[in-house]
Design brief:
Helices cover about 25% and strands about 30% of the residues. By secondary structure, it is an alpha+beta fold.
């Protein structure tokens, strides 16, 4: 859908831009020439109304010229700077909730072709802990949002709901030992899944920073569905060059890298930087309102994303 919308934007911008250019360089002069010709053939001076009628832009030209600058600005902003997204699921709870509307910084990871997603200008690379939007590797037509856990060369282990990480290194003698990523329990009681309470933790993935995650102690790790990397034990992965390992903050309700592998750098769309609006969609079972109609606004959620 995102690619289709981008293609439509490009087509509309090109078509309206061509109409503007043709009118500016050819049709406008042709209308003026026709007005002068009509004036020279007339026995009496033409009225201002008649001249204006002869030189007036056709409706389709007027509409195209009005649309072109607006759609061109939207195309540039959406393709190269910032793009809005809606969070459609709870896989990133509690950081992001269903109904959050976010802004994604698209130039931080490089300027890309809006249709093919090919990088045109290299810039920064994702950092560990970034919340990123990317093209789902198994179906690039779908946009996913997860948190970067492993960078190229890192070894990641997820076992018994515990996360372990060994940072990339070039020589075995300089490698740091495998590190358990600590998470502090938070007694919130604010979240549940399928009628079961979820435990909230503050995870220390990046030194000096924390982010919240959720665990469901009643659901075991689905190791039988884990992506099996060649020559690696189940639940262990080494991130290839040019790829990233991502996970959702709602650890037991997220279809992420544990199940399908790694995100190629070319699939990256951008970094989620802020929530600009958040709606509730808590419809009672007997509600007559369509499911897409909001039932409330969560103004307290507006702000930067950690």
């Amino acid at each position: 859908m995102a690619n289709t919308f981008a293609l439509i934007l490009v087509i509309v911008t090109v078509v309206t831009g061509l109409i503007w250019a043709v009118d500016h360089w050819f049709l406008m002069g042709l209308r003026a020439k026709n007005a002068r010709k009509a004036q020279s053939m007339s026995k009496i001076p033409l009225s201002t109304e008649a001249i204006n009628k002869l030189t007036a832009e056709p409706v389709w030209v007027e509409q195209a010229k009005g649309i072109f600058p607006v759609i061109a600005v939207v195309l540039v902003l959406r393709s190269f700077l910032f793009e809005p997204f809606q969070i459609p699921s709870g896989s990133m709870m509690p950081t992001l909730l269903d109904g959050d509307f976010i802004l994604v910084n698209k130039f931080e990871y490089g300027l890309k072709d809006p249709i093919s997603n090919v990088t045109l200008v290299e810039m920064e690379h994702p950092k560990r802990g970034d919340v990123v939007v990317f093209k789902y590797p198994e179906n690039p037509k779908i946009d996913y949002i997860k948190r970067v856990i492993g960078l190229p060369g890192d070894k990641v282990i997820f076992r018994n709901k515990q996360l372990y990480l060994q940072l990339a290194c070039k020589q075995a003698s300089t490698c740091e030992p495998m590190k358990h990523i600590e998470a502090d329990f938070v007694e919130s009681g604010n979240y549940s899944q399928l009628g079961m309470p979820l435990e909230e933790y503050n995870e220390h993935l990046v030194p000096g920073k924390t982010h919240a995650i959720l665990r469901n102690k009643y659901i075991p790790d689905r190791v039988e569905y884990y992506y099996q990397q060649p020559d690696m034990a189940v639940g262990e992965w080494v991130v290839p060059e040019g790829h990233y390992f991502v996970m959702g903050d709602n650890r037991d309700n997220s279809q992420d890298g544990r199940f399908w592998g790694f995100v190629p750098e070319r699939n990256l769309v951008g970094r989620a930087v802020a929530i600009w609006m958040s709606f509730e969609f808590d419809h009672p079972a007997d509600s007559s309102l369509p499911s897409w109609v909001p039932t409330g606004v969560r103004l307290n959620r507006i702000g930067s994303i950690q």
